[in-house]
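C-alpha cells help. One example:
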Amino acid sequence: MLKLYNTASRTKEDFVPIDPDHVKLYLCGPTVYSYAHIGNARNVVVFDVLRNILDALYPKVTLVRNVTDIDDKIIEASKQNNEPIDVITRKFEQIYNDDMGSLGVRIPTHTPRATDYVVQMVDMIKTLIDKGNAYESEGHVLFSVPSYEAYGSLSRRPKDDQIAGARVEVASYKKDPADFVLWKPSNADEPAWDSPWGRGRPGWHTECAAMIHDILGTHIDIHGGGEDLIFPHHENEQAQSCCVTGDKFVNYWVHNGFVQVEGEKMSKSLGNVMLIHDLLKQTSGRAIRLTLLMAHYPKPLNWTQNALEQSQNMLAKWDRKLEGVETATSDIKQNPVFIALCDDLNIPKAMAAFNTLLKKDPPLAKQGLALMGL
C-alpha cells in the first residue's frame, strides 16, 4: 500500500483514494514572469514520481498543475520590460514547460491558466459573501478569518504568527488583521475584470481553489507544493473551499522541503539562485532530476556542484551497465524499487534497492529506473 506523509496530520498515512477508479491530484504551478529555479522544479519532479506510482496502482489518475498568469510580479515585469502581459506570460510558460520536459517531467492532464477562471473565482467569492465568510470593504473583498473556526489547522500557526506570516500589510479596510484579499481594485493601467465589486482582479489564494472545484470537484485526494506554500496559500485555499462547500477539501497535503545551495539559503541577495534554464546548458536534464531526488522529499535538499557531478557519474555508470538490457515486463508492483517508493516516495531507499538489482537483475533495475523517471 502507498503511504504518504500528510502535512495536515503530521503523520505518514496509508493512501486510501476517494474513488479507486479515479485519483485526483493538484500541484501549485508556476507564476510565469521569469525562469524557474531548482526550488520550483523539486516539487514538479517529486509529483512526477508520485504520478508514476499512482498510475501503476489505479486505472485513472488526473493531475492538474495551474499557471498563474496574473499577479503583481507579472504586472511589474510587464512595466519594466515594456511588453504586454500576455507576451511575457506565454513566453515564460513555454520556457517552463520546455525546462520541466527536459527533466523528464510528463505534461499534466490539465494546465489551466488563472485568467481563464476569473468567472469561477467571482462565483466563489459571491458564495463566501452570501455565507458570511467574506465582506466588501473599500473596493476590496476580504475573507473573514474569524468566521472559519478551523483556520490554522493545516499550518498549526497561532493567531499572532498567522498575522505576521501573511506577508501583507494590515490595511484600514480589514476587519481583522489576519483577513486576506479575495478581490482587489486594479489601477487604470493594470489588467481588470468586471465584478459586482467593481473592475479589479482576484487575489492569488482564490485561484487554485476555484480551479480545483471546476476541474476536479470540491473534494480531492492529494494537493501539493513546496513547504513555503503551507501558509498562507494552502491554509487560505482550504479555508475558502471548506466554507463554500461545508465539507473537506483535500485528504492528503504533500509538501516538499526547501532547496539550499552549498549549505546556504537560495536567494537573489546571495546571488546563488540556480535556474533550470541555465543548468540545462551545462548538464543533462536527467542529472538535474537525479540531484533533485537525492534527498527524501519532505526534508531539505542541499544542492552542490559536487552532488550534480556525482549524479552525472552515476548516470553514466548505470547507462554502461544497462546498455542493451531489455526492461523487465513483470508486474511492476513486485519490483523492490516500486515497493520502496510506496513508502512515502522514499527515493534513498529506492536507490538502494535499484543498486542491488543492478548487480543481480539488470532488467528489473531498468524497470525501477523508469519508475523514477531516470
